[in-house]
Specification:
Elements lengths: L2 E12 L2 E12 L3 E5 L6 H9 L6 E6 L12 E4 L13 H7 L13 H13 L15 H13 L5 E5 L7 H14 L4 E5 L3 H7 L2 E6 L1 E5 L36
Parallel strand pairs: 3-7, 3-8, 5-6, 6-7
Antiparallel strand pairs: 1-2, 1-4, 8-9
Helix pairs in contact: 2-4, 3-4, 4-5
The structure holds adenosine-5'-triphosphate.
Adenosine-5'-triphosphate (ATP) binds next to helix 1.
Family: Belongs to the ABC transporter superfamily.
EC number: 3.6.3.-
Keywords: ATP-binding, Hydrolase, Nucleotide-binding, Transport
């Protein structure tokens, strides 16, 4: 497995306040990394640093494409949190998906026939046929999420980052979302931020638990006894009743 994102000794924060302290993390080619942790622990801050939206206070983040042809810069797709979407913005499903290709064309030129064909393939893959002309404000939560996921993957990125996909509140679509992610994961790494620990632990290959510092678990296998006693993350992370699940090894924050 080749490392594609390497974070070393990262410190990050806002207005002089440190939110992430000495974070080290490696994301591998075709990884499926789950990021969990309590509210305010710094998950979104970490994502912002990876996406280049927030400049770290110190430390470094390096990106290495594992592709041998075409664009050798690491490309990333991003599905933002639901509450960051302005649903009143007058844009259709087709336009949202095509906008994921904006960086592939000069600013003022139009999308090409190939771009539009690609958008059509993505619309079919996301199960959004017939909704191309619909404004995003008139979609269900699950449909909006699929449109934005389509936007995130249309450029065939090497990494897709999803910030709290469960906030789109469409339980009917949840199983399909995870199926889609498993498919996408065949040729793309996935970073999934989620509170939905039960589902996350069934899907991911590795886990990062973020609570100011970061603890990394390269696999999510059960280490034996329940580790609640030693597990310093909030109980919500473990409170999923009788669902089949895996337990994280002991870790320290
Ligand atoms: N733009 C900002 N300016 C100042 N402080 C911020 C900003 N964004 C986040 N914070 C603070 O940084 C801390 C970490 O926030 P962050 O959103 O990274 O946590 P999180 O783990 O993603 O939380 P949640 O699970 O609630 O989404 C919080 O205390 C938050 O209030």
């Amino acid at each position: 497995m080749k490392p594609i994102i390497e974070i070393k000794n990262l410190n990050a924060g806002y207005d002089g306040r440190t939110v992430l302290r000495d974070v080290n993390l490696t994301v591998y080619d075709r990884d499926f990394l789950g990021i969990i942790g309590p509210n305010g622990g710094g998950k979104t801050t970490l994502i912002k640093c990876i996406l280049g939206l927030l400049k770290p206070l110190s430390g470094e983040i390096s990106f290495t494409s594992s592709r041998t042809a075409g664009n050798l810069q690491l490309t990333m797709g991003y599905l933002p949190q639901y509450n960051s979407i302005d649903r009143k913005f007058p844009i259709t499903v087709g336009e949202v998906i095509l906008s994921g290709l904006s960086s592939k064309k000069p600013l003022i030129s139009r999308f090409t026939k190939e771009h539009k064909e690609k958008a059509h393939q993505v619309i079919v893959r996301m199960g959004l046929e017939g909704l191309e002309e619909r404004a995003i404000g008139a979609l269900s939560g699950g449909q909006l999420q699929r449109a934005l996921l389509g936007r995130a993957i249309i450029s065939d990125p090497e990494v897709v980052i999803l910030d709290e996909p469960s906030t789109y509140i469409d339980k009917r679509f949840e199983a399909r979302l995870y199926q889609l992610l498993a498919e996408i994961n065949k040729d793309c790494a996935i970073i999934l931020v989620s509170h939905d620990i039960g589902t996350v632990l069934q899907q991911v290959k590795s886990i990062a638990c973020v609570n100011e510092t970061l603890d990394y678990h390269p696999d999510t296998g059960i280490t034996g006894e329940w580790l609640e006693r030693n597990f310093n993350c909030p109980i919500e992370l473990l409170g999923h009743g009788t669902l089949p699940h895996r337990v994280l090894g002991e870790h320290h924050h």
